[in-house]
Model the fold of this input.
Amino acid sequence: MPLALIISSHVAASHVGGTAQASALSILRIDTMVAPTVLYGRHPGWGPPGGAKVEPAVLEGVLAGIEANKLFGQTDLVLTGYFAFTEQVLAAAAAIDAVRGAKRSGYGGEAPRAPAVIVDPTIGDSGKGLYVPDVVAQAIAEHLVPRADILAPNAWELAHLTGLETRTPQDVLVAARRLGKPALVSSIGGAKEIGVIYVDPHEAWMAAHPRLPSAPKGTGDLLSALFGAAILDGLSGSYALARAVGGVAETVAAAHAAGAAELPIVAMAQRLKATSPSVRLERLA
Done:
């Protein structure tokens, strides 16, 4: 069974960050190891979150324990998200290097596969701006962005990383290609639709669906996890995009229909792996 290392937030009562990703990947039969960067009771958007930021030495110790159990060599997917300290970013970068450098073995006689590293540069959003210290944002850009196989910023984060406009799909295409590696860019769209654009050196696709009046927090975290799961299943970028965005769209629609304040990830079960009739797929390049 595939194994994922998640280096991100643990939030007990909100389906966001590493908590949401671990739930989704477990449903999709991917074992997870969560190395937490914060331990919160709830998302800060609800008010004081409770708990605390994880001291860098503690995170380093968690990662060292995982490595000591020889699990880096079995890791198929690495997901990074929210960081509270620069030193946490450096610990994550070292862990990515160690995962890539670990001796690997295949499953059932198959050749070993290289791990996929998806970096979500969780630093800010439209209307809020930068919501991590500037030094943390700089560390992510310097140490994690270059190590990513796939980057998963929202449109605001992409603009911050590249210094380019990201107002239109074509803007996003130009900015994403400036990164020099595949990118999964969320929060694209207007009043009626919201979508995600996948860009690699060979092609670019947008998956869009009707915008609902509101959506729970954590959709970007869920998107990265579902896209990673699709990549592990051997799907190409465009098919992984359609499946991942479909899972997010269906989950958000279910939350809206139930009046739920959090994403109903576990309740969605295998619908997380299905495409959605509400998603429109368009080739951009």
User: Anything to note?
Assistant: The domain at 3-283 is CATH 3.40.1190.20 (UDP-N-acetylmuramoyl-L-alanine:D-glutamate ligase). The first strand starts at residue 3 and ends at 11.
